[in-house]
Amino acid sequence: MKAPRVSICLPNLNNFPYLAERVATIEAQTLTDWELVICDNHSDDGAWEFFQDLAKRDSRVQISQEPREGMYANWNNCVRKARGEFVYVATSDDTMAADCLEKMVKALDENPDCDLAHCPMKVIDQHGAPGRDWWTASSHFTKSSGDFLKQRHKRMAPFDGILCLLGDNIYSSVTQLLIRRSLFEKVGLYKADWGSLGDFHWNLRAGLAASAVHVPDTWGGWRMHPSQATANVGLNSPEHQAKIDAMIDDVLSDVERYVGKGNERGKFEDLEMRAREIRLHLREHSRLKNGVERRMFLFWGALLGKRAARQHLASLVSGGKRWPKGAPGAVSSWFEDAVLIPLA
Q1: Largest CB tally within 10 Å, which of 131, 212, 285, 305?
Q2: pLDDT tens-digit profile of 121-130?
Q3: For the residues of 214-248, what is the DSSP string, one character each?
């Protein structure tokens, strides 16, 4: 049997209320050369019966039930079964534009040096209505892209990985990514032992090893639930930051797998050190209670010769992007060669 261009991976556990909309956005894709790989974790809300009916009427759909071993373990179940050249993880409560796959496949076909295609995020609420567009306003990707955000461009490795080393996810949702399946052979599958933050671990590995092409004229959907809004309150907690640091250390323990050896490893070590300085600097700055304390922190840091403090101060008087928000935008200047490359 001929392999499809795209394997759409749909992992699921008890998301029946959203499945009709999710599947409708898949069936509406303008690119039709796909298979739908569904791995259900023994749902008891009617989802499995829904999938059984779907498989009966569309031969492109394959379904299986897998043990409940966690979200990322089930993503891996899907990826292992995928046969396509490209993989799209269609989380079961989210959506995407009808031209999403077509445009991102085309972008990867035209840029064989890239293993990831990335598109903007469209936020919806639990009822499917438009939500607050925090991605365009404040995502790590937006902050790092500047004028490139609305322009098709390439992001050369390890740029996006270095951005992850600042302590935030560069790819906000897996629904924004089309992944060349061979990339999983290069960087591995998702790690299931980091809990809900496990995508950061994979995104860091992928960002170090793979260049990406940004496709601004389509979108992947992300559904914001009230429970997620509550969980987001802890994103800057010491516990969250400690887990981010632990994931970074874990990836760096095998970093030659992603960035190579010799001269490339030497260049990476300098980039990693600069990113770590900024990560720790911005964390300490964010913990200070008022403007006076923050200014004193910056002045003393600059007097002591701390590079991150001097860069932060310079951003406040230069008329450019002010830190902390502007910090990711400074990373591209660390590279000898261009890492953001415009495309026609």
Answers
A1: 212
A2: 999 988 888 8
A3: E-TTS-EEEEEPHHHHHHGGGGGSHHHHHHHHHHH
